[in-house]
Structure formats: C-alpha cells, structure tokens
Known about the structure:
Blueprint: H1 14-45, E1 127-128, H2 146-150, E2 155-163, E3 169-176, H3 181-192, E4 199-201, E5 204-206, E6 208-216
Antiparallel strand pairs: 1-4, 2-3, 2-6, 4-5
Amino acid sequence: MLPPLDCSEVPPSTFERLAHLSLVVGLHLLLGYAALYLSVKNELIQLPSSISVRLLPMIEEKKLEPAKPLPPPKPLPPARRPPVAQPQPVLAVASTAPASSSFAVPPQPPAPPVQPIAAAPAPVATLVAARFDADYLHNPKPVYPAMSRRNGEEGKVLLKVRVSAQGTALDVALAKSSGFARLDGAAAEAVTRWRFVPARRGEEAVESSVVVPITFALD
C-alpha cells in the first residue's frame, strides 16, 4: 500500500516572496510607463481643428498740417559807444626868460682803481739774545796756558757760539783771534763746556748765536 499523501500547504520561502514582489512592482511600472507614453503621443499628434485669423482695420493716416513759418528774429538794439573825451586846448605861455646858452660837459677822468687794503701784519715778538754772564750759571774761566805765561802772551779772543734752545753750546767758532793759537784754543775749550741762558722770542725759547769775548792778561 502507498503511503498517504500530505495535502497540507507548504509556506513559500523568502526568495519566492521577493521574486513575486519584484514581478508585481515591475508590472505596475510597465503599465504606468505605457499609459504615460500613450497620453503624450496623443497630445503631440492631435492638431487644432481650425485656425482663425482676424485682420485689423488700417488706421487712417492723419493729414499732416504744413509747418507754420517762424517769425523773423527781432533786431538787436545798437550798442552804445562811450563818449570820446574831447582834447582840451593847451595854452602856450611865452617865456620872458632869456634862452640859456648851450654848453658841453667835459668827460670826467676814470676813477682810480680801488687798491685793496692790506691787513696789518701781526706784531713780531722781540728777540731777547742769549746770555752767558749770569752768575747762577757758574761757568769756569779758561785756563791760562803755562807756556803762554812764560812767553808773556796776552790777547782778546772773540768766539761765536751757537746756543740751543736748551742753553747748550752747539758750535763754537773763532770770530777774532788773539794772535796766539794757544790762547785761542784754551778759550774755545772752556766755552764749549759752558751753560747759557737761551734766547727767547716772547715766551718761547729759541736757538740763536752769541759772541763771547775772552781776555787773557798777565797780572
């Protein structure tokens, strides 16, 4: 014997449900698109049954009136000229004074050129000569040569000494001889070691020359 058949309905699966739903939606969309297409096509194909045209009556042109001529411009009043001053008559007065005689002015000599005034030179300070006879110098006297004493040699020697600004003898030269070489040499040797008061120009000590006399005499 065959087994009895189960006639109870099997519920559809989820896939089947989605397929049915998609099919229904697709049919609805297709029907909607077909209805829209037909309505638009009918509107485009349908033409108006008749076109009425109405002609407007033409407006009659107004007759243009001829333009009126413009009145001529009014003439301007003549410009007033200013009154011209009448020249006053000049009365000539006869002069009773005698006419002066003509004279000529002799040409004047040219002015002498202006000589520039030279500036007055600055006063030059007085030069005070150097000294060798001050007591505070303590300069030693020349040594009388013994040979000159025995021979009785005497005389006066003049020496030209160049004195520095510090008071020392820079150079000693024979200005006048005594006549004896030994006396001249003794005088020059002594003066070379002397101290001097330097010459001064104003407040400044300067170099200068001085003549020193040396006398050799036997007692």
